[in-house]
Amino acid sequence: VEKCKLDILEWLIEKEPSLIHNVDSKSRTLAHVAVEKCKLDILEWLIEKEPSLIHSVDSQGYNPAHHAAVARNSAILKWLLEKEPSLIRSVNRYGKGLVDIAMENIIFIENKVASEKRGRLIEVLAEKCPSLTDREGKTLIQTIVESDSFDLLALALDKAPNLIHSVDSEGKTLAHIAAEKTATRSFRLLFEKKPSLIYSIDNNGRTLIDVAIEDRVYGSDLLKFLLNQEPSLACSTCTDGSTLMDIAADPDRCILGLEDNLLTLFEILFEKEPNVIHSVNKRNRNSVQIAVDQSNYFLLARLLEVEPSLIHSVDSEGRNLAQMAVR
Length: 327
Prior knowledge:
With about 325 residues, the chain is an all-alpha fold. The protein is built from 18 helices and no strands.
């Protein structure tokens, strides 16, 4: 089998049928070796002669399908899964299934030939088992998004377009996952394929705006992207009930990205949606009133610079800005 001599193999098995059950020191059967040597014709002959070999496992609990995933051999994996669909959900002795094993062997590939192989492997997995999950409950497409593997994501979505609707156990869409992992290229591809993802909400009510605000390092880039796609999001409300203007006025929350500037968030909002200065929060406070509440002089000065008439604002109790400031 290692020398890929099918004619000799046939002759040997005919002379001594028990040889077909031969295993090596690692408990690998002839079927395992055929897969490792990427010989589909030999594998087909072996399985035809002895069907039980398709379920054979080595000392690590790897069956032929697992070995095909390790070898990134899409043709053999596809043949095995079509021959025996139950292999899709098989796991090794460590609890790893096809998604775990495949992703371990295809994410960090730079060699051109190996990259072509992983692409074909992704096509097979996306076609045959799109909803299969790994040990952590992540599907193939979710794992690809987390890794920010742009080419693999494009391949998977091309092969199985419905995968773009995937959500995890917490109701997070692929857009949530990409945003949380700062998988920028994947994030942009997802929106190109499905623009409505911008309105995604998970089981905890978290929107993509929430993800951006929570990210103290890359939040500004994400927020700018979201507002470029949909400027009206500048007037949206976060899960804690805060508006973006509430956050912009809060010195402890308004610095996004690496820019040490208390007006960064406001400038982003105002650039994309000028009407944000007229938005009100759940306490019916407008932007300048929020700035006064937070004692944010810098924001108050900037707001009055762009809209002087706001200096005449009064709250629901009839208090003007000066009275609010004194109180």
